[in-house]
């Protein structure tokens, strides 16, 4: 492990190749043999798991913190978690909406539910949020990193401040939240962290350069984070779930933008995505793909340039982004 500040201050040292080529080749061959065996073993286990899905774990009385829980998908996740008997802390920059959601949930489910004002891009605000929740409620068992901005733009002319803000809300904040709340989860030997990625984590497209970069970054973060929990043994009690929704009808501006591009694929409801997400988390699923046409997205990675251009210009209508 190296200290990034010390490395940047010291003089640049080019790497030297210390390994002899012959022993390297032999080791590589042996490693390839072991990997083939592991893949075989993993395939058998995956097949077994497919036909014997895990039973959902009871999360009643756990304390869940949902970022951006005042509106849209976050609000629906709060209701879905309350339905499972969770107590809730709702953190949102839109405090009025957080209060409204908290009041409705308390009325409907009689669970403990508190609203918190927090801008999740501000690390000091996150530390304060943690202290406030721990003193007014208790330690967070379930963290739902949902707050995000669906930013669609012409990258060639977009506002640079918007790039910074999108990266900060969609990517940096999720790492800060996870890092700051993880310590308590490890101490208490219980934790679930759910992250709302997007189908844009799987495939990008015109108008989505910045958004897709943040969501793809999140996917990379969650996969590497899971591996770190695995090698340290913390994966036994800290479970991660990444959720990949297709476009949803949430904020009106989002719906209007999506309508304007003649998006030809069916749009999801946030209630359905919240249901899939919470059920997936309770079944300890690492990945929850909410769209039935996910395989279309995977396939579109391999489209030719002309097919991509045809879909972008003839099937969808995105010309107004590029005037
Ligand atoms: N709407 C879609 O089509 C779609 C598709 C795929 C993924 N997603 C993802 O789902 C998540 C929720 O999206 P949504 O459509 O419900 O959005 P939304 O705009 O309806 O709601 C987002 C909520 O997050 C809050 N928020 C925004 N910035 C914040 C900040 N800095 N600190 C705290 N709270 C903040 C907002 O006040 C709002 O309550 C996002 O991560 C988004 O990227 C959305």
TrEMBL record:
PANTHER family: FI23927P1-RELATED, PKSB. Keywords: Membrane, Oxidoreductase, Transmembrane, Transmembrane helix. This is Uncharacterized protein. GO terms for cellular component: lipid droplet. The keyword Transmembrane applies. Belongs to the short-chain dehydrogenases/reductases (SDR) family. The chain crosses the membrane at residues 28-48. GO terms for molecular function: oxidoreductase activity, acting on the CH-OH group of donors, NAD or NADP as acceptor. InterPro entries: NAD(P)-bd_dom_sf, Sc_DH/Rdtase_CS, SDR_fam. Pfam families: adh_short. PROSITE patterns: ADH_SHORT. The lineage of its organism: Eukaryota, Metazoa, Ecdysozoa, Arthropoda, Hexapoda. It comes from Chironomus riparius.
């Amino acid at each position: 492990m190296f200290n990034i500040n010390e490395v940047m201050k010291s003089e640049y040292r080019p790497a030297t190749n210390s390994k002899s080529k012959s022993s390297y080749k032999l080791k590589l061959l042996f490693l390839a043999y072991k990997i083939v065996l592991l893949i075989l073993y993993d395939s058998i286990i995956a097949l077994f798991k497919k036909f014997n899905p895990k039973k959902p774990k009871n999360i009643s009385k756990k304390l869940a913190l949902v970022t951006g829980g005042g509106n849209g998908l976050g609000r629906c996740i709060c209701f879905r978690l309350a339905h499972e008997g969770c107590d809730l802390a709702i953190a949102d920059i839109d405090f009025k909406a957080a209060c409204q959601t908290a009041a409705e949930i308390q009325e409907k489910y009689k669970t403990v539910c508190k609203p918190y004002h927090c801008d999740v891009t501000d690390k000091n605000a996150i530390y304060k949020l943690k202290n406030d929740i721990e003193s007014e409620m208790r330690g967070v068992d379930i963290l739902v990193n949902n707050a995000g901005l669906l930013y669609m733009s012409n990258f060639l002319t977009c506002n640079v401040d918007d790039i910074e803000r999108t990266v900060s809300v969609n990517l940096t904040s999720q790492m800060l939240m996870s890092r700051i709340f993880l310590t308590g989860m490890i101490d208490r030997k219980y934790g679930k962290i759910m992250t709302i990625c997007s189908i844009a984590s799987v495939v990008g497209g015109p108008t989505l350069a910045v958004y897709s970069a943040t969501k793809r970054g999140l996917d990379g973060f969650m996969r590497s984070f899971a591996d770190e929990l695995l090698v340290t043994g913390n994966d036994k009690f800290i479970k991660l779930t990444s959720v990949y929704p297709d476009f949803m009808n949430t904020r009106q501006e989002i719906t209007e933008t999506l309508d304007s591009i003649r998006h030809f694929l069916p749009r999801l409801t946030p209630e359905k995505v919240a249901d899939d997400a919470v059920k997936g988390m309770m079944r300890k699923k690492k990945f929850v793909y909410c769209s039935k046409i996910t395989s279309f997205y995977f396939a579109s990675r391999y489209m030719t340039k002309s097919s991509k251009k045809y879909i972008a210009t003839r099937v969808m209508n995105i010309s107004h982004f590029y005037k």
